[in-house]
Structures are given as structure tokens and as C-alpha cells.
């Protein structure tokens, strides 16, 4: 079971496979099953969806649309809807894992707590980090004021231990495409770590780095590119990749690896095999 690419098909179930595609960020009144078009992987324990940027994963103090409102459509015959196994920031796109039942959530929780889940993010940042490969180890702490609300910052002493490995994939035009592998899962960790070394993510309204020129104040260029979960003892890790969204592709341009920004053949080329 897993993700295969290269075979275009129309939506629906064909020969035991489910063809899945892309949908825009939902607005109030959007189809309740829009996540079906963003399904990347499905088996008996988990689902992986391609979360759109701009949609919170759960309700905040102001309520409003959030991803949990749309999980009922992903039951696939089970008595309960799936639940979040981890979180992504509202403005981050890409791979998001859901547990289909309590047993799955317990197993996923142990994997995340033990640091056995390999997460890869892509970020477009200001400038070019030097050295091109490095480990960032900076403790984080939460701050808040009535005027600004809350934010995370590097702790002067102590703080939450936070570790990120980064690697520059490409540079040009005063910006770089950086691969980030968080070794801990702190709130806003990648955004704070990259800003702290002088290379904030473009489009980040909290920690600096608005897109330059005509795209000033554009979207946060942070994408959860892939995730690998060693769910089954005698099988390879479940590895899932999410294509970057159009806004990310447009902003990153020729920094992206060849083929990533090319249009797909047919309505969709991502296939998920059913159990």
C-alpha cells in the first residue's frame, strides 16, 4: 500500500485504486468532502492528507473554518472519524497524518514521542545560509503581550530543547530553497530557528521575511514536503510526499528541483491503493 505516480486517471475508484487530486482552500459552504481530493495515502491505520495553506488544523479562540470540520468525510466505513496525529501551522501546507482509530493514534503517538518519524520541510528563505549544511540547536520559549498576542523566541537560558537540521538545496536572486529536518517538534520551531540564524522564511508575518517586490506580504513559503513513518515492524516505512502548492512553486521558481514545478499529465497523477 502506498503512493504511486505517473499514471493519470479520472477521479473515483478504479481497479482497487483511488485517484486523488487537488482542491482550493475551503471557504464557508465549501463541499464537506473536499479532503477526499487531497488524500495522499490510506491504509487500515492512517491517512495522510495534503493540507492546504491558510487552513488551521483545529478551531482557535475565534473559531472559523478548520480542518477538523472536514474529517467526517474521511471515515471510509469506520465508526469514528479520524483524528490529528500531529499539527501543522495554519499557513504551512503539505503532509498531515491522521490516525483512523484509537489504536492507530496510540501507535503514532509513540513514534512521534520517540523521534522515529522523519519529517522533511521545504522553506524559501532570505539569503543563503552558510555553511550549507548545519544543525541548529536553540532552546525556545513562549512570550505573550496584550498588544501583540503570543509568539515563540530563542530562550536566553534553557527553554525547550529544539533541534533542526538544514541543508541548502539551491540559491539565487537573494533567496534559497532549504530542506529542514526537525528533530524535535516545538511550536514554530523551523520559523524561529531560521530567523535566528539570519535567514527568515519568506512571507513570515511574525518572525520576518515578507516576500520582496510585487509579492510583498505574500504567503508563508513553508511546505511539509514528506513524511516517513515506521508503522509496521516487517515492512519499509510508510513514505509519503506532497507536491508544493502553486503559490510556493511560483515564488520558488527555478530554485525547485527539475520536474517539481512541471504540470501533471491529466487531472491527477497521484494514486492511492486501497487496503
Strand residue percentage? 25-35%
- CATH level 1 class label: Alpha Beta
The CATH superfamily is known as: Pseudouridine synthase
Radius of gyration: 19 Å
Structural class comes to mainly beta
Uncertain residue ranges: 1-24, 212-216, 263-275
What's the number of extended β-strand segments? Answer: 16
Order of helices and strands: EEEEEEEHEEEEEEHEEHE
Distance from first to last alpha carbon: 7 Å
Would you kindly provide a brief summary of this structure?
This protein is mainly beta and 275 residues long. It has helices spanning 102-113, 189-196, 246-252, and strands at 3-5, 12-14, 17-20, 39-42, 46-51, 83-84, 93-99, 118-126, 133-137, 140-145, 149-154, 163-172, 175-182, 222-229, 238-241, 270-273. Strands 4, 5, 6, 7, 8, 9, 12, 13, 14 and 15 form a ten-stranded mixed sheet that branches. It has a four-stranded antiparallel sheet with strand order 1-16-3-2, with no helix packed on it.
Description:
- This protein has 275 residues and is mainly β.
- It has a single domain (3-273), classed as Pseudouridine synthase, CATH 3.30.2350.10.
- It has helices spanning 102-113, 189-196, 246-252, and strands at residues 3-5, 12-14, 17-20, 39-42, 46-51, 83-84, 93-99, 118-126, 133-137, 140-145, 149-154, 163-172, 175-182, 222-229, 238-241, 270-273.
- A hairpin with a 2-residue loop joins strand 12 and strand 13 (175-182).
- The termini are close together.
Amino acid at each position: 500500500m502506498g503512493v504511486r505516480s505517473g499514471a493519470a486517471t479520472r477521479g473515483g475508484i478504479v481497479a482497487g485504486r483511488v485517484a486523488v487530486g487537488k482542491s482550493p482552500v475551503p471557504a464557508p459552504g465549501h463541499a464537506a468532502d473536499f479532503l477526499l481530493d487531497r488524500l495522499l495515502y490510506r491504509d487500515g491505520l492512517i491517512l495522510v492528507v495534503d493540507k492546504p495553506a491558510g487552513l488551521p488544523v483545529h478551531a482557535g479562540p475565534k473559531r472559523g473554518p478548520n480542518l477538523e470540520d472536514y474529517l467526517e468525510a474521511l471515515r471510509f466505513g469506520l465508526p469514528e472519524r479520524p483524528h490529528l496525529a500531529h499539527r501543522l501551522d495554519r499557513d504551512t501546507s503539505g503532509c498531515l497524518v491522521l490516525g483512523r482509530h484509537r489504536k492507530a493514534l496510540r501507535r503514532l503517538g509513540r513514534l512521534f514521542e520517540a523521534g522515529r518519524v522523519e519529517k522533511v520541510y521545504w522553506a524559501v528563505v532570505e539569503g543563503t545560509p552558510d555553511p550549507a549544511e548545519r544543525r541548529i540547536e536553540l532552546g525556545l520559549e513562549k512570550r505573550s503581550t496584550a498588544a501583540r498576542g503570543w509568539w515563540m523566541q530563542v530562550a536566553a537560558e534553557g527553554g525547550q530543547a529544539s533541534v533542526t537540521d538544514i541543508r541548502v538545496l539551491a540559491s539565487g536572486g537573494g533567496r534559497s530553497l532549504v530542506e529542514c529536518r526537525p528533530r524535535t517538534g516545538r511550536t514554530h520551531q523551523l520559523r524561529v530557528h531560521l530567523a535566528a540564524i539570519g535567514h527568515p522564511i519568506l512571507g513570515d508575518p511574525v518572525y520576518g521575511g515578507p516576500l520582496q517586490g510585487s509579492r510583498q506580504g505574500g504567503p508563508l513559503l513553508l511546505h511539509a514536503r514528506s513524511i516517513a513513518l515506521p508503522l509496521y515492524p516487517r515492512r519499509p516505512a510508510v513514505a509519503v510526499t506532497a507536491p508544493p502548492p502553486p503559490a510556493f512553486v511560483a515564488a520558488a521558481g527555478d530554485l525547485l528541483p527539475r520536474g517539481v514545478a512541471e504540470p501533471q499529465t491529466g487531472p491527477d497523477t497521484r494514486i492511492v491503493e486501497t487496503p
